[in-house]
From TrEMBL:
The protein's name in its UniProt record: Zinc metalloprotease
Gene name tied to this protein: rseP
Lineage: Bacteria, Bacillati, Bacillota, Bacilli, Bacillales
Source organism, top-level taxon: Bacteria
Pfam family, one: PDZ_6
Source organism (scientific name): Geobacillus proteiniphilus
EC class of the enzyme, as a word: hydrolase
């Protein structure tokens, strides 16, 4: 029970962080483009916690399986003033409309009650109508202004503050920023690991020794420089590993340098069968170093390596070399995260970085409801010279989302069978 709880907590922290930075990428680029962002949410379902800062409500929701940034114009603006509708207008000192009150007008003693004749809250920013049942007036709506519904304020979004009003380049960067934030997060995490733990180097030096390995028993120590093995000069760690693996159970004469003095140590690698092959092992890890530039380089190398591996895996899935039941969903990731967490914080950080790359790549796939699907429609718009009809695009994304949810159910069922049944 305790292990299960730790796995769940580890999963929520790691996956929540990945989603947070992904959505933060969308949020920052959207705000930079001048888009009104109504909500920044981590999770789905009922709100657990929320607060408002400036124009945006920041929320944590019950189900930690994703997140979203709700931008003006992306969802249909549900409030629309119609001819004949009676509303209350709150005016500022210059006579401009600050708030349009739809109900509970009695809460505001100085309100102007208006029967709407015409309203344009996207381009013209005005409301015309009759006050006192007879007098026709035109009211200018200021920016920002708000609807008040059930005593809750909802900011009015003029067209120039909506997602669709922005240039193709601004919209593209806003959507692309989420996956790019995941790649950047992975790079930063790998760099931090290098700075704190060190990074492996291909030098002929003995790294950390296991407690009961042949190297420790023979008298080797961490930091020993290996000059030669059985008279053959060693230039890299890779050469040391290959030599040891090739001589299971055979005594090897190590010529080493320690504290400026050369000495000879005999080590007999333990024979171990791995995937049907018998190899030699002496219980030594690769040497590690710490430096800022080295950590940055290692971070770039790790990010590139895991990006390539994940893309290769997706290619194998598409070509049928990788079976669907080998995929893992939230349950499988949670179980794996719990197991990795038991190995230590650095392993958990590396696992999180790999998951972040995976999240970035998956979101770039040209599938409906994913960021890649949105980018595909932008590419079509660039070719056609005009955007695809919003209703048609929305239907495609809706169908795509339903299919993704179906896939999620299948994968989750596979995880449950694999780990619990």
């Amino acid at each position: 029970m305790v292990e299960t709880l730790e796995s769940i907590i580890s999963f929520i922290i790691v996956f929540g962080a990945l989603v947070f930075f992904h959505e933060l990428g969308h949020l920052l680029l959207a705000k930079r483009a001048g888009i009104l962002c109504r909500e920044f949410a981590i999770g789905f379902g009922p709100k657990v916690f929320s607060f408002k800062k400036n124009e945006t409500v920041y929320t944590i929701r019950l189900l930690p399986l994703g997140g979203f940034v709700r931008m003006a114009g992306e969802d249909p603006e549900t409030i629309e003033l119609k001819r004949g509708q009676v509303v209350g207008l709150l005016l500022d000192g210059s006579g401009q409309v600050e708030k349009i009150v739809l109900n509970h007008k009695d809460d505001y003693p100085n309100i102007r009650v208006v029967e709407v004749e015409e309203a344009d809250l996207e381009h013209g920013m005005y409301v015309t109508g009759y006050t006192d049942g007879e007098r026709f007036e035109r009211f200018t709506v200021k920016e920002p202004a708000f609807f008040v519904v059930d005593r809750q304020e909802i900011q009015i979004a003029p067209y120039h503050r909506q997602f669709a009003a922005k240039t193709l380049g601004q919209r593209t960067m806003t959507i692309l920023a989420g996956p790019l934030a995941n790649f950047l997060l992975s790079l930063v995490v790998f760099i931090i690991i290098g700075l704190l733990q060190g990074y492996p180097v291909d030098k002929p030096v003995i790294g950390e020794l296991t407690p009961e390995g042949a190297a420790r028993a023979a008298g080797l120590k961490q930091g020993d420089e290996v000059i030669a093995i059985n008279g053959e000069r060693m230039e890299t760690w890779t050469e040391i590993v290959n030599t040891i693996r090739a001589h299971p159970g055979e005594p090897l004469q190590f010529q080493i340098e320690r504290n400026g003095k050369e000495r000879s140590v005999t080590v007999t690698p333990e024979a171990k069968t791995v995937q049907g092959e018998t190899i030699g092992l002496i219980g030594v890890y690769q040497p590690m170093e710490k430096s800022v530039l080295g950590s940055i380089k290692q971070g770039l190398v790790e990010t590139y390596y895991w990006t390539r591996e994940i893309v290769t895996g997706l290619g194998q899935l598409i070509t049928g070399q990788f079976q669907l039941d080998m995929l893992s969903g939230p349950v499988g990731i949670a179980v794996s995260t719990g197991k990795v967490a038991e190995s230590g914080i650095y392993y958990l950080m590396k696992w999180g970085a790999i998951l972040s790359i995976n999240l970035g790549i998956v979101n770039l796939l040209p599938l409906p409801a994913l960021d890649g699907g949105r980018l595909l429609f932008f590419a079509i718009e660039a070719v056609r010279g005009k955007p695809v009809d919003r209703q048609k695009e929305g239907m495609v994304h809706f169908i795509g989302f339903a299919l993704l949810m179906l896939l999620m159910l299948v994968v989750t069922w596979n995880d449950i069978q694999k780990f619990f049944l």
